[in-house]
## 1
Amino acid sequence: GNSVTQMEGPVTLSEEAFLTINCTYTATGYPSLFWYVQYPGEGLQLLLKATKADDKGSNKGFEATYRKETTSFHLEKGSVQVSDSAVYFCALQIYNQGGKLIFGQGTELSVKP
Amino acid sequence: EAGVTQFPSHSVIEKGQTVTLRCDPISGHDNLYWYRRVMGKEIKFLLHFVKESKQDESGMPNNRFLAERTGGTYSTLKVQPAELEDSGVYFCASSKFGGGPGGGANVLTFGAGSRLTVL
């Protein structure tokens, strides 16, 4: 079946530290990959996406590269800020399956000043 | 454009009562999805509407949950009777269909969610 596995949180970092949140997937079809973010008190927001192998999605200093050979889509940021504290969700979407997303369990990130 | 709107933002009810959650999608979005996140676990798919038709309801947990989308505009999700394990955050999302492999993905826009607490 189709599934997404994320590293467990919570992750606590100091400001300006390097961030990696691991995400691996299993897919029976050809997936598009996404990272969504939920800031405290807000809804889910699309952070970035990639639709084919070797694509790199980027936004707000975050990056993730679609690695088909390792079935991974790890999220990275070179220097985190306190405002990046949120829950991050990795998700996949299989072409021609109605557009629904399959999410990982979420990784809570807390950035301390 | 206005985003996806959900209400109530938070509902507290007792076991056995009924709750109805509402979702207003982005205007012109034929696709509407319901998801649920229970107690810090993954966000799980519940169902998918295309206009007023249920395209996929494979994620609906049981027959205590009823979703409707009359007229293909807003949608409601009713839980009757509510049980303790129904507590969680219910998200609604809408989209226009995108492309396929190598092209644009079908990007879903989510609402802020409705938090349901069943006591």
## 2
Amino acid sequence: QLQLQESGPGLVKPSETLSLTCTVSGGSISSSDCYWGWIRQPPGKGPEWIGSIYYTGNTHYNPSLSSRVTISVDTSKNRFSLQLTSLAAADTAVYYCARIAAAAGSLRPYYFKYWGQGTLVTVSS
Amino acid sequence: QTVVTQEPSFAVSPGGTVTLTCGLNSGSVSVGYYPSWFQQTPGQAPRTLIYTTNSRSSGVPDRFSGSILGNKAALTITGAQADDESDYYCALYMGNGIWVFGGGTKLTVL
């Protein structure tokens, strides 16, 4: 059974950069049939898709966050990472990583098949 | 800006049927948006119930079903149970790898 585990700081100061890592176990991050994504959920609000990466390094970002987001993949360590710069209080959220299945051939993502348990990140001085 | 709309709250009696909807501020939802539905209880990660409009995730009871109703995606729960009381979110695929989530529906079973 594939599992995803987020790790990173729980508290970050305003204006600083958040770095989170999602470690994949029970499967290979180099699978050709999926993307690896980050989703966040502010307290009391709905989820927000941040972005996704294919094992080759091809990325897609939420246009509203794209100027501050970088997602990268490390196939040797079977993990992928999120960097979010210029943090503000509005970035306080639970951050989830997920495996998003993609259709063969077209590579259109279509199914959030696995989710990590999430990690709470608080932006505060 | 694309906004995915959901009813803020809904109530259903135990054993009853409820249909939650997922719309777009800028047009109609079709199967091409790969509508997905998620269930979330407090403190837990979202659980994917439905993907590509009407495909159920493994282990999801068949009382949960997805469809397109009119110009919206819909999640129908038939024979609601107490433990269906949760927040329900939908997400739509906008193309170019981009997904947009709705604000969620809080379902009460009473």
